[in-house]
Amino acid sequence: MTTRENTPIALDEALASFDVLWSPRIVTRVNDYDVRVAKVEGDHVWHVHDDTDEFFLVVDGELIIALREPEGERDVVLPRGSVFTVPRGTWHKPRSPKGASILLLEPTGTPTVGDHHDDVPGHVDATTGHALA
Fold first, then answer.
1. pLDDT at position 96
2. What is the enclosing helix (H) or strand (E) of 21?
3. CB of 7 within 8 A of CB of 14?
4. Among 93, 104, 84, which residue's Cα sits nearest to residue 44?
5. pLDDT in the model for residue 5
6. What is the sign of the dihedral through the CA atoms of 121, 51, 24 and 127?
7. Measured between alpha carbons, how far is 6 from 27 in angstroms, rounded to an integer?
8. 1: exposed, middle or buried (C-beta count within 10 Å: 0-12, 13-18, 19+)?
9. Cα–Cα distance for residue pair 132/129, rounded to 1 Å
10. Cα separation of 33 and 90, whole Å?
């Protein structure tokens, strides 16, 4: 990761530095957590994180997160400026029909496709995050 400790990082500039969808960039770290930004459009993949929650902040656009809960499936709609935390152990599938920019907070080393997942489509980058250029 490009080291930028003790200097502000503009999210709009960080997001402008790459175009690849569903391929998060690590903008900074907080203790043992990565702060990642990503551009998204279309569907991600159904997945679950066994031991960690996943925090989402919609910077621009709209994100929809489908959840599989004991009561059944439901969609959580997140417009620009909204936050949502997917609890650990909950199967979920983010999607954005028109595109969005998001910020994620996850423990360093957490795979974007969780601990268990459906088949990963070619447009989804199965990674633990990339360095911000």
1. 98
2. none
3. no
4. 93
5. 66
6. negative
7. 12
8. middle
9. 9
10. 20
pTM value surpassing 0.90: yes
Residues 37 and 15 sit within 8 Å (Cβ to Cβ): yes
Q: What is the pLDDT of residues 90-107, one digit of tens each?
A: 999 999 999 999 999 999
- Other CB atoms within a 10 A radius of the CB of residue 104 amount to 20
pLDDT of residue 4: 57
SS3 letters across 88-112? CCCEEEEEEEEEEEEEEEEECCCCC
Q: Which two tokens stand for residue 88?
A: 């650990």
28, 98 contact by CB (below 8 A): no
CB 39 within 8 A of CB 21: yes
How far is Cα 114 from Cα 111, in angstroms, rounded to an integer? Answer: 5
Amino acid at 47: H
